[in-house]
Structure formats: structure tokens, C-alpha cells
Hints:
Elements: E1 3-7, E2 10-13, E3 18-25, E4 37-43, E5 50-55, E6 62-64, E7 72-77, E8 82-87, E9 96-103, E10 116-117, E11 121-126
Parallel strand pairs: 2-11
Antiparallel strand pairs: 1-3, 3-8, 4-5, 4-9, 5-6, 7-8, 9-10, 9-11
Amino acid sequence: QVQLIESGGGLVQDGGSLRLSCAGSGRPSGRGFDSHTMGWFRQAPGLEREFVAAKSWVGGATYYADSVKGRFTVSRDNAKNTVSLQMTSLRPEDTAVYFCAVSSWHYTTDLNNYECWGQGTQVTVSS
Length: 127
């Protein structure tokens, strides 16, 4: 059974920083996490879930939504099956539930291509 568990969410002031982590267990699609792209999505109340960032298993390429470029950094530790999201210069519009997910695609921002999801962690940025 594959599990993804996020941690690190919380309440932070405008301009502050947070670091989210996601730990995976099991073998998604029968393969290790090091054969999967690991990504982050977020969903604010009343809005659709949107792509935030991902780190591919192919060459370790990273991808970011335009709204977070230059402020967020995604990293992964294949030995520990973890992916992290360092968030700086946070803004109230970053408030959302953040989810980690894995995909067997080497690059995708489409949530429909992610096959396993965590339960989410709340990030609230106060103004």
C-alpha cells in the first residue's frame, strides 16, 4: 500500500517562510519512488486544485508554477522517499491545503497524471 504523508504546514505572516515535507512508503506502480516524479499541488477554498512544483525522476529537473517561481524550491531525497517544498516570501494568496503526489510521468503538471496523493497540509498566510 502506497502512502504519502505531508507535514510542516501552519500559520505564517505575510512575507514569512515555511518548509513542507512529504514522506512516501510502499511502491507506487510497483516501482520505487525514485522512478516517479514527485510534485506539490494546492487547493484554496472554492478553487480547483492547482500545480505548484515538481521534481522529475528524469535528470532531477524541476518545474514551478509561474505564481511561485523564485519563491518556492522543491527538493527530494530518493534514499528517504521524501520531497520537500521550501516556501519563502509567502503571500496571503498562497493560503491553501498543500498536497504531495507522485506520477510515473517524467514531467507533468496535470493532476490527472498523478496516481498517488497525500492527505494534505494546511498553509495559512496572514496579512
